[in-house]
Amino acid sequence: MDIKLFYSGPMQVNSYICTDEETKKGFIIDPGGPNRTADKYIAEHGYEIEYIILTHGHGDHICGVPYYRDKLKAELIGHRGDDFLFLDEKENLSQEFTGSAITFTPDRYVTDGEIIKVGNMDVKVIHTPGHTPGGISLLVEKALFSGDTLFAQSIGRTDFKNGSFPELEKSIRKKLYILPDDTQVFPGHMGPTTIGDEKKYNMFVKDE
What we know:
208 residues; alpha/beta; Metallo-beta-lactamase, Chain A; 6-stranded mixed β-sheet; 8 helices; 30% strand
C-alpha cells in the first residue's frame, strides 16, 4: 500500500492518495483543491484513481471535487449525513474559501461498517459524527484516515452548525480507540499520530 500526502486548497488541508501498488488502483481523500504535484505523482506511477472519498463536507476538504471529478472520472463517495454541506455553498463555505460556489451530489453514499474494495485493499468506512453529522473515517489495514475527527493530541471543532462534542467524543472512544494501539492515524490537518499515542496524550479525549 502506498500512501502519499499532499497539501491542497487555500487551507492546505491534508489530502491523501492511497493506492494498491500491485494493481495500481487507488483513491484520493479530501481534495481541498487542484494540486499539480499530486497530478504528476498519479501520472508518473500509472495509478488509476477509482474513487474520491470525502471524510466530511466542509469547504477546505471539498474545493477540489469539481476538478478531480472531471479529471479522474472517479466515483465520488460521501455520507448522506453531510448532504446539507454538499448541496449548499453557504453551509460548506466554499464561496468564502475559493470565491466559487461548489455544490454536488455524491455518486454513492456509504454507511458505517461498509467495505469499499479498491484493488486488493479493503477500505472500511467508520461513521464518526461529531465534527459534522456525516463525518467518516477510513481504515485500510493499519492506516486510519481520520478526517477532522481526531488529530495529533487534538480533535475536530464542534462549534460549527450541527457539530456535537458528545457525539465526537463517543465516535473517538467507541470507534477509534478500540483499534490496535499501533494503528497509524493520518488526519485532515497537522501531522500523523497513532491510536496508542492519542489514548495516552490526547487531553481532549482521554482513554478511560
